[in-house]
Amino acid sequence: MRLISIGLLAVVLLSAAVLTVQKPMPLTVGFGPATGSSSYTMTNSGGTSALGAFSFVAPSSPFGGTMRLKDVRIITGTQSGSPKLTAALYSDSNGLPGSVIETGTESGVLTNGVWYSLGGFTSTSNLTAGTQYWVVLRCSSGTSSTVALQYLSSGAYGHPPTSSGAGGSDQAWGMTAVASTDNGSTWSTAWRYSVIGLRIGITDGTDDAYFGLPVGSFAGAIAASEKLYTNSGSAQEVGSYFTTPANATLNVRGVIMFIKRNSSPSGNVRFRLYSGTYTSLTLLATTAAIPGGNITTSIGSLYTSYFPSTISVAGGTKLSVTAGNTAADDSTNYFNTNKWPVDSGADSLALLPFAGMQSIKYSGGAWSVTSGEAVPFWLLLDTDGEFAAPEGGGGGEGGQSGWIYQQ
Question: Engineering a disulfide at 98: which of 14, 91, 195, 284 sits with its beta carbon 3.0 to 4.6 angstroms away?
Fold first, then answer.
């Protein structure tokens, strides 16, 4: 079986020589959903059951033949009364769910914070490219089930603009969500645009493909044990651990991350770049410090800092990007960043940046990594030469193309 990653990837073509007329905005390579969270709660209460519906437009078949809905992958929020979920495929009717095409198989009992695949679809759920459909989620057993999702707010760095208004012409990507509180008899017209987090699987019966961004609801600021201050004699750092795209050498000039200030830390924030496996890291460079007083108390603010010189990172390098505090400070006065849950299932690894990533932290004198979550970051590439000579062609199916955005 092949896994083919499609959708939500911007491709940058590399060339051996580029004529530069003036310095452009820098290219960025990284991972960074915008802040903004939504949750949709499905209830099981007869005629007043609450349902959630999410629209998508079927892509062109990557198989060259007939394709059908295979499954829907979601991450759960709060659950009550041993709930089970069922996904159904609906047609579109004037921008809202129309009639049911097919109902999938009921899930097992759901727990909080876990990725699940809702499947059981057959050839009845064949899809026509370019046609809009809806996936409707129903709590078919138990009391209630919440699905934790995320939406992209307008102007997020590294993302196209989005709109939260009905019919917004600048809605760029993601799904549209609506809800029903009367078991699907009527649907709200208070649309939420650019919702991400659902993974839609399609198949021709032999090969599978997936689209949708495998990122759950904003997980909030990092845990207390990961805050940026000196804890038990250890100056803590936190960030993301990943492998760079195999087909390009990156010339890295700086880093962008979400940073928040709590109370009145005396230190400043700096970013670091490490290479190697997390058990044996080599420090490559440290950025200039960002004055602590310039950092706000909002977790949604982005900050940029640069390295003293360009850092050349060969393709296929294990790399870590971290944030840290230049002073000891304490558990009341500190800085922190945030993180998102990411799907580490096999069907999503092909789409995750750099063929999968993990959060990394330094605490208690040792480095550790955690799967299923990541700290947002962007690497700013040098505008005088973002890449060294290309090292072969672009990533193939399931390749390590990553998320590369042209600013």
Answer: 91
